[in-house]
DNA sequence: GCCGTTTTCGGCCCGACTGTTTTCAGTCG
């Protein structure tokens, strides 16, 4: 865990304790804000301390800086140690449980002598909690349901899973076409966060339709539990323990509502600050004059931001990580978009561990509207993945040559590629003489995930035939953390050799921070689906979203090159390392 | 705890739903 995340976690915990103790809510909000800023920061906090820039970060004041310095010096924060002594830490884990908040825990602590998580769970089940004032049967039921939910869905969804569920729900809601004006997925899913907590759906419709819309929403086939149902807001839990929320607004409120429910929270707080400074008020219902409450706009997001004198930041970068300042100055960069994408660099067929045939995968890539695709089956040492030996690759090339004849007339190109294993000593699973025969080479690590693998990747980058490092960090979504890595070294060598780094849609690897580092250093990234079935190719737009979260520029995304540009990219490295 | 284009003190985003409450507190996003 990076120092940023470690310190962020401590600030988060301090906020929890302060909340439990009933401290000033604004101080608590500040601690949480500091935690959030630290974890979203794309610079190492130690760097900021060295350069003195830590003192210039809005939202991190003197007192927080002191705590950060203390942590960097002594490895702990005395204020945190002090607070920890005042409350059983394990009890506060329950703050994450839906329907349990600080007041409930505090009451149980004081009136029932509850000292731990298990104490609390026992008190719920034994009915002891029900003896507290204000705790009726329904409240108890909600708490029990919250605990059940919490235990089941501790893990957030991957972006792809959330998108699938959201899409299915959207299709279902569209049965009400005649009642609904607009409908869209909002929240962290719209921001294309790599993991999503729950799914937010926003609908605009005339008020008289709202009751019917919410009725329809909670009647979805996969619904296990209706958490709440109102005229503007409903919330359900699906059989798979995933939560979906619906909000309805009137058509003229659409933009303000979409802006609000897209978030992030940090972004919105800043935007509302800006509104206030202009004598305006921003809510999910529109932009208003602060003094008269007169509605002055909000039917589209563009209108909302324009009224605040800003460009509209793309949803993916609304994290209060610099986008607001640039939007105010009218200087937002143009990010890569799905329309820019001309090909996919990493797909598998049933020659190795894919389930689609070569023909199916290629046809699907062609139907995506691409100009080219790289077929990249595993090399031999990936035995579980049915890796190919040299002879099998040669057989596959014959097939590709045959198919290329068909597709040439359509202006579509199939590149002979491979995903060659980077072996434990950093050498590759195929000899250079064979690698030289491929059109495009992806090199990836598939073994020894717990050791520092920097040396293996550096060695692979030095190979003149390696064009792309596959899933460089070994991370998979939020779940598998990835091996320790000196990303700065890797990025510098990638820059100096003309090697690209892969943003893998299925694993959400690289992170947005890494993408920003690549952009700053002028290193190409390639957005790939790592498709193992024809249906996977369509997730490219989610990969593009992940790249946009890292402020990816089209000129440094390899997929924006046409076939000629890709061939030049490959040739350039071979020339640079003097092998042609 | 943070911050300053009416401020170095006095504010801090704002609204929905539920439950037990007869006017509001707790929780959530």
UniProtKB/TrEMBL annotation:
Residues 52-71, 92-111, 127-146 form the Helix-hairpin-helix DNA-binding motif class domain. Keywords: DNA damage, DNA repair, DNA replication, DNA synthesis, DNA-directed DNA polymerase, Methylation, Nucleotidyltransferase, Sodium, Transferase, Ubl conjugation. It catalyses: a 5'-end 2'-deoxyribose-2'-deoxyribonucleotide-DNA = (2E,4S)-4-hydroxypenten-2-al-5-phosphate + a 5'-end 5'-phospho-2'-deoxyribonucleoside-DNA + H(+); DNA(n) + a 2'-deoxyribonucleoside 5'-triphosphate = DNA(n+1) + diphosphate; 2'-deoxyribonucleotide-(2'-deoxyribose 5'-phosphate)-2'-deoxyribonucleotide-DNA = a 3'-end 2'-deoxyribonucleotide-(2,3-dehydro-2,3-deoxyribose 5'-phosphate)-DNA + a 5'-end 5'-phospho-2'-deoxyribonucleoside-DNA + H(+). GO terms for biological process: DNA repair. It is found in: Cytoplasm. The keyword Phosphoprotein does not apply. The keyword Phosphoprotein does not apply. SMART domains: HhH1, POLIIIAc, POLXc. GO terms for molecular function: class I DNA-(apurinic or apyrimidinic site) endonuclease activity; DNA binding; DNA-directed DNA polymerase activity; phosphoric ester hydrolase activity; zinc ion binding. Residues 2-319 form the DNA-directed DNA polymerase X domain. Repair polymerase that plays a key role in base-excision repair. During this process, the damaged base is excised by specific DNA glycosylases, the DNA backbone is nicked at the abasic site by an apurinic/apyrimidic (AP) endonuclease, and POLB removes 5'-deoxyribose-phosphate from the preincised AP site acting as a 5'-deoxyribose-phosphate lyase (5'-dRP lyase); through its DNA polymerase activity, it adds one nucleotide to the 3' end of the arising single-nucleotide gap. This is DNA polymerase beta.
């Amino acid at each position: 865990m990076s120092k940023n995340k470690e310190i962020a976690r401590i600030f988060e915990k301090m906020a929890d304790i302060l909340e439990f103790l009933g401290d000033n809510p604004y101080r608590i909000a500040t601690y949480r804000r500091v935690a959030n800023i630290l974890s979203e920061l794309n610079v190492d906090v130690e760097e900021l301390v060295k350069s003195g820039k830590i003192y210039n970060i809005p939202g991190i004041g003197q007192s927080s800086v002191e705590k950060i310095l203390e942590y960097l010096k002594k490895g702990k924060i005395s204020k945190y140690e002090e607070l920890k002594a005042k409350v059983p830490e394990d009890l506060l884990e329950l703050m994450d449980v839906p329907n349990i908040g600080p007041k409930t825990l505090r009451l149980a602590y004081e009136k029932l002598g509850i000292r731990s998580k298990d104490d609390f769970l026992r008190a719920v089940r034994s009915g002891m909690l029900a003896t507290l004032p204000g705790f009726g049967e329904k409240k108890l039921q909600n708490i029990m349901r919250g605990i059940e939910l919490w235990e089941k869905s501790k893990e957030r969804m991957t972006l792809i899973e959330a998108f699938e569920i959201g899409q299915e729900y959207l299709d279902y809601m569209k049965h009400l076409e005649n009642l609904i004006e607009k409908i869209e997925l909002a929240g962290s899913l719209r921001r294309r966060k790599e993991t999503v907590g729950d799914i937010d759906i926003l609908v605009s419709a005339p008020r008289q339709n709202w009751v019917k819309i919410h009725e329809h929403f909670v009647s979805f086939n996969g619904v296990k539990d209706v958490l709440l149902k109102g005229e503007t807001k409903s919330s359900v839990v699906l059989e798979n323990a995933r939560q979906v929320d619906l909000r309805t607004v009137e058509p003229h409120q659409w933009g303000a509502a979409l802006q609000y429910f897209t978030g992030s929270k940090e972004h919105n707080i800043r935007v509302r600050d800006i509104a206030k400074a202009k004598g305006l008020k921003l809510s999910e219902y529109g932009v208003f004059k602060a003094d008269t409450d007169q509605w002055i706009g909000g039917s589209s997001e563009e209108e909302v931001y324009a009224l605040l004198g800003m460009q509209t930041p793309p949803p993916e970068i609304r994290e209060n990580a610099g986008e607001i300042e640039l939007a105010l100055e009218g200087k937002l960069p143009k990010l890569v978009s799905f329309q820019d994408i001309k090909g996919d660099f990493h797909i598998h067929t049933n020659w190795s561990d894919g389930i689609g045939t070569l023909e199916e995968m290629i046809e699907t890539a062609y139907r995506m509207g691409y100009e080219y695709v790289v077929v990249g089956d595993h090399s031999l040492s990936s035995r579980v993945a049915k890796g190919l030996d040299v002879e099998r690759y040669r057989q596959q090339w014959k097939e590709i040559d045959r198919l290329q004849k068909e597709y040439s007339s359509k202006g579509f190109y199939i590149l002979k590629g491979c995903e060659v294993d980077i072996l434990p000593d950093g050498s590759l699973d195929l000899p250079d003489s064979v690698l030289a025969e491929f059109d495009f080479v992806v090199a990836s690590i598939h073994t020894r995930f717990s050791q520092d693998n920097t040396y293996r990747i550096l060695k692979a980058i030095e190979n003149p035939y390696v064009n792309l490092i596959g899933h460089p960090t070994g991370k998979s979504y939020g779940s598998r953390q990835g091996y320790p890595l000196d990303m700065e070294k890797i990025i510098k060598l990638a820059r100096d050799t003309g090697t690209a780094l892969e943003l893998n849609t299925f694993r959400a690897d690289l992170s947005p921070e890494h993408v920003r580092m690549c952009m700053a250093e002028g290193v190409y990234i390639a957005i790939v689906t790592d498709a193992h079935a024809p249906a996977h190719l369509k997730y490219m737009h989610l990969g593009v979203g992940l790249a946009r979260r890292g402020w990816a520029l089209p000129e440094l995304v390899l997929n924006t090159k046409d076939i000629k540009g890709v061939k030049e990219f490959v040739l350039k490295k071979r020339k640079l390392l003097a092998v042609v």
